[in-house]
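Internal ticket #5521
Category: modeling
Description: The requester needs a full-assembly model to guide mutagenesis choices. All entity lines are attached below as received. Residue total reported by intake: 1338.
Assigned to: D.W.
Attached entities:
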Amino acid sequence: MSSDSEKEAVEKKPEESKPTETKPPEKPATAKPDEQKPAATKPAPAKKPAPTKEEPELPAFEKGIADKIIEKFGEKTTISFVKPDRVGIKVGRDDIHNVAEFARDTLNYDHVDSVAGVDYPADKEIEVVYHLSSYTDPTLSRQILELATRAQREEDPIPGNDATKLPSLRDIFYSVEFHEREVFEMLGVYFEGHPDNRRLLLPEDWADLPPLRKDFRNKGR
Amino acid sequence: MGTATGIIRALNSGIKHIALKRFTLRYPEEKLKFVGDGYQFDPSTGVGIAGLKGRHMLFHDHCTGCQLCSIACEGVAEAIGMVKVPEEWKQNKKSIMPQIDYGKCVFCGLCVDACPFYALYMTNDYELSSFSKEGLIYTPAQLAVKPEVAQDSEIQISARGATHG
Amino acid sequence: MSVIAPNFKLSEFIKSILDNVFWFLLIFTLIGIPAVMFILFYIEMPVIDGELLTPFLALTWLADPSRSIPILKAFMATDLFRIAAFPGFGFAALLAAGTIFVERKMLAKLQLRVGPFYCGKVEGILQLMGDGLKLISKEIIIPAKADKPLFWAAPVLFVATAAAFVALIPVAPGWVVADLDVGLLAVFAVIGFFPIITILSAWSANSKFPFIGGIRALYQMVSFEIPLILSLLGVVILTGTLNLSEITASQSSFPWIIFLPIGAIVFFITMLAELERIPFDLPEAESEIVAGWLTEFSGMMYGLVQLGTYLKLYSFAALFVVLFLGGWNGPMIWPPFPEEIITEGIELGPVTAQFPGLPVFSQEMLNGTIWFVLKTVGVIFFILLPRGVFPRIRVDMLLDLGWKKLIGLAFVNIFIALGLLYAGILGPGGIL
Amino acid sequence: MSSPTLPPGLAIQKADERIMTLNVGPQHPGSGHMRIIVQIDGDYIVACDPDPGYVHRGEEKMAEYRNYTLNVPHLERPVIHDSCNILYPYVLAAEELLGLEIPERAKYIRVIASELNRCIYTQYWLAIYGIFLGHSTMFMWPAGDRELLIDLMEKMTGARVTHSYFIPGGIRNDLPANFEDVCLRQVNYFEKRIKEYADVFYNNPILISRTEKTGVLTRENAIKLGTTGSVLRASGVDYDVRKKEPYDVYDELDFETNVMKDGDSYARSRIPWLDMMESCRIIRNALQKMPKSGSVRVKLKPNPKGELGSVYKRIESGRGALGCYIVSDKKVEPYRVKLSVPSFRNLIALPHLLIGEKLGNMPSVYWSLNYWPVEADR
Amino acid sequence: MIKKCAYLFIQKLGFKAKLVGELAGNYSTVVLMFGFAVAAMAPALVISRMISPRKRSNPVKFLPMECGQVPSGEGRTHFMMQYYAYILMFVVFDVVAIFLYAWGSTILYLPKEATLPIIGFLAIIFAAMAFALQQSGRRNIW
């Protein structure tokens, strides 16, 4: 994830954020005819809220959180959106561990609400979004910090034995244990460092694709 | 002592309840009364009218065969199929009307919401069981019949507890 | 239609019943009746009403009802009648069946439900019969690796042990199946059998959940047997006898519960535990160990265990009545018999019916039975009530309760009895 | 078993032969639609491995094929007893993506329906908690009293459990005539009834001695494990989404959150009961403040397309914070719907609570987690 | 001979047994009651076996209950609960409790001084029981 654009610029001028995240040339052409969902254009970047409303009216507190992360990690992270009570940060897979540690130790986020995996076949990537929240810090009780990171996607996945891997955050946030197991079986993202990468919800003899990938088709749909 | 008091209070509460009224709806003999004639939808205001979401009722003279109910159902239960009807209606050139398979229907009522012509209602009839799967498929002619329902039991609350009358 | 589940056909069901009835009748008529005649021919028959009972006479009651009366009277004087009918099995089974019905209806009332309602028109009074029919027509499944003889024997042994318990209970003066001098010790001996049967059946099923249930039954017995035994020692000290009939007779003026309330409470709690009723139903704790030691029982085997359980419930309630509530003692409420009924019989339309039981049943006995039944039903009500209001307890709580609290209370009860005795209030020289 | 050289009974048992593996579930009266593999050493649980997934239906995958409105009937299936609440975050998120502002009256009705549903769910949960403890009365009373509220929901939405009532743009139908009176009457009686549970259940000394100090979840662990809802509040963390991040009109209503410090099974089972009383209070309050008339649903054009972007919304359901994360790619269907369900978040605490407990405590500790297996599986 | 045996048998069954002593006769009724229950209940199982369906096609049906899973491991295993100490205590104190009955049932005929040794005996029991309970509380050694 080499995003060279200014964080501030990204925030205020969302149209610039497009080129930063995914490969721009591919995007218009990604929609393959057989794909029901065309390539995910932009997963997280929320252009709408910022531009439609007045630009300086970004919520100050949330922006402060975002600034702190940018300040610490600089180019390694990108702000995908800042909305009331919600901050979205994009991190490369190598830095996700450090950013999460920073979020826990300095920003006081103490648990993970949910871990969502999103498949982007056009980008050949799978995004894993951690929704961080806090019980202990009363100022953060409304806040959700979305940490998004991306793993490489393989066409013929062998869950656990291919390049679709991410570092596990379990040693930082204990609460991700079952969520990461779920993401592993539903999308095939192997979490390195997770102590218990077993099946959770799917049957033991499931041999098909991980079901939440976009190329896994529901019957009759 | 606290333990003994607690045990005595529990026993006392149990014995007291022997004198309360029974709160059981004895179903085949008593049937619960519902609000209104069933769930309906007013397309002009875009708001439904409260009522039980039971089996549907189709007004043949309103149905235009537009298939909107069928399309709505496709995303939910795939229970509605459009079939040919023998009669001719001037608003229904294609002579197709919905046929509902109650083996699949989930009674969400989104087909009623989808109907722009006030042709599909839901009624208070919920006793749809049948000995065969075919018996659960209601043709347009069957759907046009208004069901006879006798439902009169209501929850009554008195000093001696609530009961179904 | 499901592939696996067999189709139930009423015609086949009825046919199977009719087949069995047919074969039974055939075998009975061809073998049974000749055998009976054969045996009767070689037996010295007793003299009844100055008339020697011959095999012919013994079978004429089929044709002539008036002849059946002396035979019935003779029969009622036998032990067989006591065992099978009145103070024994039939009476207890009747009360047990009534208990099941009352339990279901009372619990339903407590829980604001209706309970059995449709079977038998009147508030589901025939529900038990329906359940019995259902159970008897269900397939008996025995686990493949089970120890079959033990597994088959367990339900029957359970009922039989409960019946042996019933045999020790005096219902009315002189009406007891086995009037033992050490009746109370015999009761303890019989009670000791139940956990053994439980463990044997649990072990024989070769399944984990029954096994744990059996072990729990063992612990339950272990922790409650001693308080049970000790809580009754107070009564024995005050009466100086172990004979249950004598204990009952000693309470003609007042029941022991007045002097030994602590013993009564301890005995009641241990009784609940021995019965595996709700606060202590650990061996059958369904949310922890599916159905405990009953998990592998199916069909009539389960039904027999239930029958045994309720027989046991009746026996324990009756034991409580006998030991603490004065048994059959009570004011005379049964109307006295007119002399002519006993001697001449009752004019009922064209025939004069001589009531068969009356020379056997005396007024005292009927009165005693009424009081006994009333008290027993009262105790049964209080045995059933905790099921509605208490949750189940845990094994360690159970052991704690049994070994620390109840044993202590039982000793307190013994000292109360000793104190009453030595203070001269009761016992020889006291007001007794 | 014994080796051939030794007489039976004298064989030396290895230490791990004491350990028995029990499959508790899925066909067990003390498990939901899940399996808990427990290993017991005598009476003590030494290992526990929850194995959910027996009712996994792929709701998240199904949601990718249907438009925002048609997702409603099947997304409520995971918790049919709490079907308004499980739809709530989805509907809130969808409304933000579709750019809808819903009428004030609809917000109040949503709150009433949500609170009624919370009580219905909690009563069901309480009924099963009762039967797990062997308390059959506590199964029958909540199951019966729940009928009062189901009757209200039926009048309101037309269905007993699967209401399909909330929809992007408001609610499906307005309240029936004189609903307020009936609602007030039945809710008042309901509150009177649930207060009677105290004598038989919550203040019952046997129950207290049985559930106190079992399955203790400390405050630190509750936060670390990311638990939510009654489990979290029973451990002393005052966190309720209705208070901390009020959605719809919760900021205008008058209620309190219940917090207990002990973190044991008893506290965890008492919190939902206290919450039900607060729910009754909220319902009365909302009925009072609700606009007496007005629109309840904004007209939606057919097949609306969501904005590009993602939304994460959460609400407080009967079990805890329930989140919904929707990613949209400017299509009629959402690109990805993720339900972050409280049952799944609380499940992680189960092995932590059960290990070292007695086998007899397993059902009560398990169910006191306010866990609904179907919801966790989705 | 046959006649004599049958007579004895029937007497046992139906009529007061004159040949056996009165006491043994009392005990025999308990056994008879036991036997009667067996004789009356066994037909219930036999009839049930006759009229109920018997389908042996599915071997899975006869596996022991394991909550819908294929059973793992034996049902009869070495299984020890941590409360084993109570069983040992029971073996001792059950005998003691019954022994107290010998004293209790004859106390009316004993001199009052005879109670004192029993009180001392009870004190020893209490001490022993307290020690045993304290030991049984140490779960880790069991």
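Resolution: model delivered.
Comment from assignee: The mean pLDDT of chain B is 83.
Ticket closed.
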